[in-house]
Write a structure and sequence with these properties.
Its EC number is 4.3.2.1. It is found in: Cytoplasm. Pfam families: Lyase_1. This protein is mainly alpha-helical and about 425 residues long. It has 3 domains: about 90 residues, Fumarase C, Chain B, domain 1 (Orthogonal Bundle); about 220 residues, Fumarase/aspartase (Central domain) (Fumarase C, Chain A, domain 2, Up-down Bundle), CATH 1.20.200.10; about 50 residues, no CATH class. The protein has 18 helices and 6 strands. Helix 8 links the parallel strand 3 and strand 4. The chain starts with 14 loop residues before the first helix and ends with a helix. Bound molecules: arginine. The site of arginine has 10 residues, from helix 6.
Length: about 425
């Protein structure tokens, strides 16, 4: 390992203790290494603006940071256990290539604000991806809501047959859900869009750092003003991001649940695209919906990441090394969550209904509510109408199209207000 930035003279490094301290930190730092490099570039420019670095020194640092980023992308440079963490690796590279100039890079910054700024930059990208994937899923659902509005589907409550519904209503529900999720990811990204660089170890630094310039250079919407809050918000903003992702995961879990029911022989309503189906090692007949089951299971990874971070945040103010553990949870949660979410739009585009099976599942009892409401509309008090309509002798197989068309309250089958959902979608694009 290269020299530790903080090593005390005369104290030898104990390998076992160092391994515990480092954990898998340097490997995790690969995830936002490029963001750490970008923030280092902004910090160097700030140092030049206040005379700590000369123009030539800045040119040298900027060049070496660019080369490091290229080498990392191409695999020529590997961020590994030779370094304590990604932050140390950047400084080590600059010192190696530029000598004393490299030794100036850490003036007025701390690994504490380095990790904060890299994490925020990384999360802005991940939330943008979350927003885009939810939007894609919503677009697909909305398109199919319009096209399949007239395809009857039983509506269930308690998993018991309730009223006539339609594929269009099912789709419209998911469209609105993923619009909400997309908006939540966008709003959360806007909340996270604040620059902590310059807060140093959490108490600022006795240098007139041009924080506004760094904020603008890194593309942040605003600055995190209080240096102390920059630290206090660690873990909290990761949690908010996981909550936004978790909202999409909640919907993903539920839609996967619907599909796993609907693809069973007992329902037989849906056929999945062949790539989404696997087999059994012993039962040659099996066609298993493993992909949607793993989509459903991904909720657990995101929820576990949230829970791990929540447990870690039981801390007084200021930096504590416990906070390092939030990174693994965050990366794992987003890695799994986005991998699952990325499969959703194509699945929604290609899954197929079996309208005959759906229609066959509509029985006369499912028109009883329509009957009660019809009687009430004609003037009978609803509770009396309800009693009359509860009599199975009055149940008749109805016309699902008529039942759906009569549902004219906004957002219901006859009036799904898809135009309003299209407008929300357009605003999020
Ligand atoms: N790997 C560390 C983390 O994620 C970086 C900050 C280290 N700061 C410190 N004071 N030891 O928290």
């Amino acid at each position: 390992m290269s020299d530790l930035l903080w090593q005390k003279p005369g104290v030898a490094v104990d390998a076992q203790i160092q391994a515990f301290l480092a954990g898998d930190d340097v490997i995790l730092d690969r995830e936002f290494f490029l963001h750490d490099i970008a923030a280092s570039r902004a910090h160097a420019e700030g140092l030049q603006r206040i005379g700590i670095l000369s123009a030539d020194e800045l040119t040298g640092i900027a060049h070496e940071l660019g080369t490091l980023a290229d080498d990392f992308r191409s695999g020529t440079f590997v961020l590994d256990e030779r370094f304590e963490d990604g932050h140390s690796a950047i400084e080590a590279r600059l010192v190696d290539r530029l000598g004393d100039t490299g030794r100036r890079i850490h003036t007025g910054r701390s690994r504490n604000d380095q990790v904060l700024v890299a994490t925020r930059l990384w999360l802005k990208e991940k939330l943008a991806r979350t927003q885009a994937l939810c939007l894609e899923a919503a677009e697909m659902a909305l398109q199919r809501a319009g096209a399949e509005a007239g395809v009857p589907l039983p509506g269930y409550t308690h998993l018991q047959r309730a009223v006539v519904s339609s594929a269009g209503m099912w789709w419209a529900g998911w469209a609105e859900a993923f619009i909400d999720d997309s908006q939540r990811a966008r709003d959360t990204a806007a909340w996270i869009d604040a620059n902590p660089l310059g807060s140093a170890a959490g108490y600022g630094v006795n240098l007139a750092l041009d924080r506004d310039h760094a904020t603008q250079m890194l593309g942040f919407g605003r600055m995190q003003v209080a240096a102390t809050y920059a630290q206090l918000s660690r873990g909290k903003f990761e949690l908010a991001a996981l909550e936004a992702l978790g909202s999409a995961m909640l919907d993903l879990r539920r839609i996967a649940w619907d599909l796993s029911l609907f693809t069973s022989a007992e329902f037989g309503f849906v056929a999945l695209p062949p790539e989404y189906v696997t087999g059994s090692s012993i039962m040659p007949n099996k066609r298993n919906p493993d992909v949607i089951e793993l989509m459903r299971g991904t909720y657990a990874s995101v929820a576990a990441a949230k829970s791990e971070i929540e447990h870690l945040l039981s801390l007084p103010s200021g930096y504590h090394r416990d906070l390092q553990v939030t990174k693994g949870a965050l990366f794992h949660g987003f890695g799994k969550g986005l991998q699952a979410l990325a499969l959703l739009p194509d699945l929604l585009r290609r899954m197929q209904w079996n309208p005959d099976a759906m229609r066959a599942a509509l029985d006369p009892s499912m028109y009883a509510t329509d009957l009660a409401v019809d009687l009430a509309r004609q003037g009978m008090p609803f509770r009396d109408a309800y009693r009359q309509a509860a009599d199975p002798g009055r149940w008749e197989q109805g016309d699902p199209q008529a039942s759906l068309a009569a549902r004219v309250s906004p957002g219901a089958a006859g009036d799904m207000r898809l135009d309003a959902l299209h407008a929300r979608l357009a605003a999020l694009r």
